[in-house]
Amino acid sequence: MNPWPIPPSGMPMMPGMPPIPGMPPMPGMPPIPGMGMPPGMPPVPGMMPQQKEPEWIAHTKPDGKVYYYNRVTQQSTWEKPEELKTPLERALSACPWKEYKTEDGRKYYSNTVTRETVWKVPAEYQAIIDRFEVIMPPTPADPAPLVPVSSNVVVIPVNFDSREEAEKAFKQMLEEADIGLDWTWEQTMRKVINNPMYRCLKTLTERKQAFQSYVEDKKNSIKQAAEEKLAYERDSFAVLLGSLGADLTITLRYKKMAEVFAEDPVFLSIEPERRMELFEEFMTEFRKKDADEKRALRKENVERFKHILKTTTTITATTTWQEAQQLWASHPDFLPPSPNSVNPLHSMEAIDILVTFEDHMKHLEAAFFEEFDAKRKAEKRRERQLRDEFRSLLDRLVEEGIIHVHSKWKEIYPYVAEESCYNEMLGQPGSNPLELFWDVLVGLEDRYLSVRKDALEAVRASGIDITVQTSFSEFETLFKNFNRGRYDQNTLKQIFDELMHRAIARSKDDEKRKERRTRKRLDAFKSLLKHLSPRLTSVATWEKVKPLVKGTDEYGDLEEAQRVYVFDRFLKKLKAREQADESSSSEESGDDGEKSRKRKSSGRERDLRRDDKKRRTAEDERDSRRDERDIRKDDRRDGSRRDERDIRRDDRDVRETREVRDIPRDIPREVPREERRPSLGELEEGEL
Fold first, then answer.
1. Does a structural domain hold residue 115?
2. For a designed S-S bond to 435, which of 53, 268, 389, 431 qualifies (C-beta 3.0 to 4.6 A apart)?
3. Cβ neighbours of residue 261 under 8 Å, at least 6 residues apart?
4. Residue ranges of the FF domain (predicted)?
């Protein structure tokens, strides 16, 4: 069995299939050997000459695609050979514009020379088609009837004065020929090509344009007639429904309307489907109009009610709903115009009244809070201005030297008590006058500490101690030599007062320490005189006693005047004691019994005096030890006070600075003479 069955005679080969013997090859395939007469073979003798068959034969694939086969050369091609082309196709093949189709069948044109592609038929391409269409015979397959043209007919040319008249005549010809709207130009041309009016337009393009215009005009006229008919039916139906009067409501149904006009000729003249469409159109418009009227009335009532609320001045932001109802009910615009009439506002829905009232209250509240905010801003602005004025007042007092780092509020109060900015600030929120005063002191304190640090550095660098005898001019000169920058003289004066206060305190401590040390030395010298051996008597003199005590430490610690002073005081008390003893002895010599009693009494007195003497001696020793402890303690305290590290630590200690603020301004520069150490003549016995 042959695996390659031979297709029926006349069936072409599909592209891509292997060639079958006896079948023409597809385009691009080589010629099949053995087909036709062998080359060089002479014709068979006696064979009759036959009619020459065409060289090219067209074959169609199952998908409708055509290819061509040459019997002689045994070649196949997809392109149509020149021998099979019509004169129009040969003319178009010489044109650079070629026609192509997209996948959806749409035609487009491409120029093989310029590579330009367009959708519209090029003029050059169309001119070739127009030239051949004039002489193209009608196709028998076209539905238009063929009109033979006799060779004896003489064609009379038709001429018109204008193109518009010619186009009008051409359209009249189409109208008389009863050309349909769905006819193509080819169908139309075949029917009217023998009509003399066909050539009233010179070119084929003009005829086509007139044909398209005729079709459009006919469509428009048909459309216009249909629209006029619809308009007439719509108007007639509207008049019909309008005759219902009060029965015409937004709830009217088509069934009820059809029952009412069942015998009406106008109603019956309209098709049933058209009646329902017209009814729905009319009711839709009627309901829309009714809704618009209600909406307009509602809007008008809302605006009138807003006007009532605005003109009722008794309604404020704090008015309640119950109070507002009573207020607008008595408004003239809310009352009926006449006793028998009805105010449209009374037909307003409660929700509209409530919403309008709420909107009005929101506006009132917004206006209230806006006014409140404006007043509050004005108050805050005024409060800020008062604070600025008071700060300016404090700055002026600082420049005048009235306010300094050690100032107290009670000191500057008299300067600000009568100022209007101070009195208006009282009771207002925010920073009060006292706090602003403290802010000024903080700024002065920062400046004060900076200048104080430079001043202490200047004192330490100069190696000069600030004493009670130092004047401010000397201190200022010292500071200027150390610091070349600008400074505040008032601040420098406060620093000098602080240093002077320290110097005075230190001087007083030194005086007290010297006095304690002197008292201790006087007591030690007095104790030395008491314990001399032999004991001193009231007749002793300083010249005799001096050699006895000259080599002692107690003697060397005192000056000569102090030694004589202690010796004289000691000798004076010794004489007084001896006189007391003598007077007591003379009283005992009177009576023996009395002497005996007095002797016993004097013995007891001697014991008492001895005990008293021991007690005083012990007290003196205890006082001496206490004085020594006090002196050592004072020495340690003085050393710590003079320590420079304590001074630097004081600079960092803010509390020490705030304590300095309370130092009186009127510190004495020198210690009065009466406050200095007392003279030796002023010391009592217990003070030695």
1. yes
2. 431
3. 240, 267
4. 163-217, 382-443
**Inside any domain, residue 398:** no
Say if residues 524 and 554 touch (Cβ distance below 8 Å): yes
| Range with lowest mean pLDDT among 54-63, 181-190, 353-362, 422-431 | 54-63
The runs of H, that is alpha helices, within 95-141 are 123-133
How many independent structural domains does the chain possess? 5
Q: Are 257 and 279 in contact (CB under 8 A)?
A: yes
Residue 641 in this model has a pLDDT that exceeds 80: no
3-state secondary structure (DSSP) of residue 98? strand
The domain that holds 120 is classified in CATH as 1.10.10.440
pLDDT (average), residues 620-645:
59
Amino acid at 526: K
Residues forming beta bridges with residue 58, ordered by sequence position: 68
Helix (H, G, I), strand (E, B) or coil at 324: helix
Contact, 415 vs 395, CB < 8 A?
A: no
> Is residue 2 domain-shared with residue 24, that is, in the same domain?
yes
Do residues 555 and 625 both lie within one domain? yes
Q: Is 84:121 a contact under the CB 8 Å cutoff?
A: no
586 and 609 housed in the same domain = yes
Extract the tokens encoding 588.
């005992």
* Partners of 99 in the β-ladder: 109
The pair of three-digit structure tokens given for residue 138, joined into one six-digit string: 């009608």
Residues 18 and 11: their CA atoms lie apart, in Å, by 14
Domain membership of residue 485 (yes or no) is no
- H helix intervals, 147-201: 163-176, 185-192
Residues with Cβ < 8 Å from 170, sequence gap 6 or more? 197, 198, 200, 201, 207, 210, 214
**Could you tell me if residue 472 is left (phi over 0), alpha (psi between -120 and 50 degrees) or otherwise beta?**
alpha
How many Å apart are CA 439 and CA 398, to the nearest integer?
12
Q: How far is CA 20 from the centre of its chain?
A: 86
Task: Kindly report, residue by residue over 515-569, the tens digit of the pLDDT.
Answer: 888 888 888 888 888 888 888 887 888 888 888 888 888 888 888 888 888 888 8
| pTM assigned to the model | 0.36
The reply to whether 69 and 198 lie within a common domain is no
CA pair distance 53, 72, nearest whole angstrom: 10
Tell me the one-letter amino acid at 341: S
How is residue 684 written in tokens? 């009592």
Q: Which domain covers residue 190, as residue numbers?
A: 86-149+156-220
Query: Domain of 264: which CATH number?
Result: 1.10.10
For 668, the 3-state DSSP assignment is: coil
- Looking at residue 562, its amino acid is Q
What residue type is assigned to position 503 of the chain? A
Pair (195, 183) in one structural domain:
yes
Within a domain: 9: yes
For residue range 325-381, list pLDDT tens digits in order.
Answer: 877 777 777 766 655 555 667 767 778 888 888 898 898 899 989 999 999 999 999
- Do 283 and 307 lie in a common domain? no
- Looking at the structure, do residues 75 and 93 belong to the same domain, yes or no? no
Q: What residues contact 594, with CB distance under 8 A and at least 6 apart?
A: 588
- Positive or negative, the Cα torsion across 362, 367, 373, 379? negative
